[in-house]
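Researcher: I'd like a structural prediction for the single chain below. Treat it as a standalone chain; there are no partners to consider.
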Amino acid sequence: MGKLKRPRQDLRGRLEREVKKRWQPQIRAKARNKAASTDGLVVSTRARFGFEAAGGTTDDARIRDITQALPPEYADKLFSAREEGKTEDQLRQIAADGLARMYFRANNSRAHGLGVEFTDVEWLDIEL
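Model: Treating it as a single chain, here is the predicted structure.
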């Protein structure tokens, strides 16, 4: 009797912050480990892509909408680079390398030597 059934507003706020502070890092760590070891990630973007192939041939860059699954190694590279404090351009280059390998070179099974330029990024979304 006489016990609070609901915490006061200020106490409720403090409890929620403490739970999030302890819970979120664990959830993020599990998601990162899963993405970097088994699942990989999905990159969706709208950006300008251009190509340079062996022998000096080129293809003019154009805007493309691409959604592509990348293998776990790219998730690991992105997470590690972020933790190391790499710049946004460096992180974008890792995503571009993954897109070049998986989308444009079909997991390096074709178009060997094709260099992919990834510029004018309108948006980039990475999902685990």
